[in-house]
């Protein structure tokens, strides 16, 4: 039976409720100095605010060595009643010290598999997805290395592969590599940040290939997000790809949390959802927030 691997154990996909398919409770990177998500109390408050808005599940895409705080996630999930899915994987090279990347050479796929099957470190929390990243309109050697390891881990476990697309670009390059060269089934690939590069032709080709398309990180004025998202999502729905769509918040800095004055996780349900309902209708938006994440993240785990 296909199940979603949460920090409290495997659950049936229909148990998720309304799902934020891409977000972060904890995140640290040298690329975001002074803006780290490290405060467990703030994470609890943010999850509680999401729950109060009707939310049922948050999928954390924070990968290896970026401050995931996996050991804190089960208690936060229990306290708030929100399912949480943790991630393994590796982001772009800029987020890591060179020495750490050298140490991972030759054993990256094994690391991913261990975190998916045995648990993250000593926490006992098993990851439910593999997160990797492309570059701006291209795949560099680091991206090819991490995606090759992700494909190996997918073949060993069945886990979905979630991809950060830099400014929403390179979707078709990613599919050519992961699905064409490395044999990952397209429906096991989730392409993130497509709202940041609203090329409707690329979106449609990615959907036709069979991948899930994530529109995440709303309310960012420097990206084509809120005001362009309904058009992009409606174009895909009208073409018959409503079942391939996912929505997420992608809260990456402390100031972006709702409890610190930003839009945060609740904005997905209080801001994005009603806007999309006007474009797509309530029934389809409900399915995008519930049924689609269940299919995207549910796996017959090996």
TrEMBL record:
Keywords on record: Hydrolase, Metal-binding
Cofactor binding note: Binds 2 divalent metal cations per subunit.
Cofactor(s) required, per the database record: a divalent metal cation
Annotated Zn(2+) 1 binding sites: 22, 24, 131, 250
Pfam families: PTE
Domain of life: Bacteria
Keyword Hydrolase among UniProt keywords: yes
InterPro entries for this protein: Metal_Hydrolase, Phosphotriesterase
N6-carboxylysine modifications at: 131
SUPFAM superfamilies, per the entry: Metallo-dependent hydrolases (SSF51556)
PANTHER family: PHOSPHOTRIESTERASE-RELATED (PTHR10819), PHOSPHOTRIESTERASE-RELATED PROTEIN (PTHR10819:SF3)
Family: Belongs to the metallo-dependent hydrolases superfamily. Phosphotriesterase family.
Protein name stated in the entry: Phosphotriesterase
Organism: Streptomyces sporangiiformans
């Amino acid at each position: 039976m296909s199940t979603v691997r949460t920090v409290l154990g495997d659950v049936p996909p229909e148990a998720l409720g309304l799902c934020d398919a891409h977000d972060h409770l904890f995140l640290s990177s040298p690329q975001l100095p002074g803006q780290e998500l490290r405060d467990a109390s703030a994470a609890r408050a943010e999850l509680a605010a999401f729950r109060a808005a009707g939310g049922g599940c948050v999928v954390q895409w924070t990968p290896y060595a970026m401050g995931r705080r996996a050991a804190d996630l089960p208690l936060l999930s229990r306290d708030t009643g929100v399912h949480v899915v943790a991630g393994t994987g590796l982001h772009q090279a800029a987020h890591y010290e060179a020495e750490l990347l050298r140490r991972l050479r030759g054993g990256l796929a094994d690391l991913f598999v261990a975190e998916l099957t045995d648990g993250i470190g000593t926490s006992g929390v098993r990851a439910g997805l593999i997160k990797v990243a492309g570059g701006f309109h291209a795949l560099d050697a680091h991206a090819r290395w991490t995606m090759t390891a992700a494909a190996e881990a997918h073949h060993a476990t069945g886990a979905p592969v979630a991809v950060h697309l830099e400014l929403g670009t390179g979707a078709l390059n990613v599919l050519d590599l992961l699905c064409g060269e490395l044999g990952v089934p397209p429906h096991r690939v989730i392409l993130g940040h497509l709202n940041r590069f609203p090329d409707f032709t690329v979106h449609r080709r990615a959907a036709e290939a069979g991948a899930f398309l994530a529109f995440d990180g709303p309310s960012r004025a420097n990206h084509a997000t809120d005001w362009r998202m309904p058009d992009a999502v409606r174009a895909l729905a009208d073409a018959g790809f409503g079942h391939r769509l996912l929505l997420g918040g992608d809260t990456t800095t402390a100031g972006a949390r709702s409890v610190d004055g930003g839009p945060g996780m609740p904005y997905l349900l209080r801001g994005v959802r009603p806007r999309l309902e006007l474009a797509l209708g309530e029934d389809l938006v409900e399915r995008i927030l519930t049924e689609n994440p269940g299919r995207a993240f549910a796996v017959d785990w090996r």
